[in-house]
Specification:
- The chain contains 2 helices and no strands.
- The chain has one domain.
- Helix content is 72%, strand content 0%.
- The protein starts with a helix and ends in a 15-residue tail after the last helix.
- With 76 residues, the protein is mostly helical.
Length: 76
């Protein structure tokens, strides 16, 4: 089954929310500065969404581990 491009985008956003919260707390602990941790979190969120989206699209084109779909499997 193929995935639509927007599915990769939604997956990347939901994954990054989790990762961004972790990055914020790690940055806060390391720096001890709320504003600095917030700025690190913001840059991290935007950059890594793009990276994850591109990663997903590339892997969608790779045939490794995929099997050919059989249209009969989806008939009701």
């Amino acid at each position: 089954m193929r995935e639509k491009n927007y599915r990769s985008l939604v997956k990347s956003i939901s994954y990054r929310i989790t990762g961004t919260v972790a990055t914020f707390f790690i940055s806060l602990i390391v720096t001890g500065k709320f504003e600095f941790a917030l700025s690190i979190m913001s840059v991290d969120f935007i950059v890594k969404i793009g990276i994850f989206y591109l990663h997903e699209r590339v892997w969608n084109k790779i045939k490794f581990g995929k099997i050919k779909e059989n249209p009969e499997d989806y008939q009701i």
